[in-house]
Amino acid sequence: MHIQESGQMYLESIYVLSQTQSVVRAIDVSEYMGFSKPSVSRALGILRKNGFLTTNENGHLQLTEAGLSMAQNIYERHTTLKRLLIAMGVSEQVAAEDACKIEHDISEETFLVIKSYLAKQNM
Prior knowledge:
The protein is mostly helical. The protein contains 6 helices and 2 strands, in the order αααββααα.
């Protein structure tokens, strides 16, 4: 299933937060992304409706299998593109910002070629 860029960003944010926190709540996502609580609530509702996310009775967010898969894919794209940009001489901060923009639009073919190139270069 295709998901819009904003949905991808929410999934990636939940994934990143879940790597350092035992539980992730909507307020955590709001603070991490710098978005208002109502905006986050609406976006999370859409992700739940589309089967990418569940929320337990305590308000803890959990990525579904589909949500986790998509989040990991987006995160891999982000980190790979960031590594490439840094290797090319871009500052870490700008590389992170630009990777965030590129990760949503780059084709799978191009991404796989970049990933292969970096692997061959031991980067």
